[in-house]
Amino acid sequence: MKPRISMITLGVSDLQESVRFYEQGLGLPKMDSPPEVAFFTLKGSWLGLYGRRSLAEDAGLPADGSGFTGFTIAHNVDSEAAVDELMEQAVAAGAKLVKPAQKVFWGGYSGYFADPDGYLWEVAHNPLFWVGPKDEDA
Question: Does some domain include residue 15?
Fold first, then answer.
């Protein structure tokens, strides 16, 4: 795995209030985003805000209780094959497969694994945009 984090997505209870906090309160630069999600540019990565229940549903876990901690860490790659390779690498290293890589509603391809402490990582390929350097440059 290349040493980078593409995006940290926080599952929030009130998207509009969270957008106000990060954009106006902290001064993070908000990108154009669909109404159900917000993205902010950071140096070398993004911060994403998404409804807690919707984010849990995307990972295939319950929103309440111990199954979902309220955020995921996303690692974007440049192809579906790279998603599959990294998912296999993570599982081989001891990660728990949470959601096998598959085509997803937003037009990309992604899957989820949990690290040994249960933190969720999404490995994704988005054909509409690429976040991060080409793998050979990282």
Answer: yes
Structural domain contains residue 2: no
Q: Return the beta strands (E) in the chain as ranges.
A: 7-12, 37-42, 45-51, 71-76, 96-103, 109-114, 120-125
Residue 115: inside a domain = yes
- Output the pTM of the full model: 0.69
| Residues 67-115 pLDDT 10s | 777 788 888 899 999 999 999 999 999 899 999 999 999 889 999 999 9
pLDDT digit string (tens) for 10-58? 989 899 999 989 999 888 999 999 999 999 998 888 999 999 899 999 9
Strands of the sheet with 96-103, listed across from one edge: 37-42, 45-51, 7-12, 71-76, 120-125, 109-114, 96-103
In a domain, 1, yes or no: no
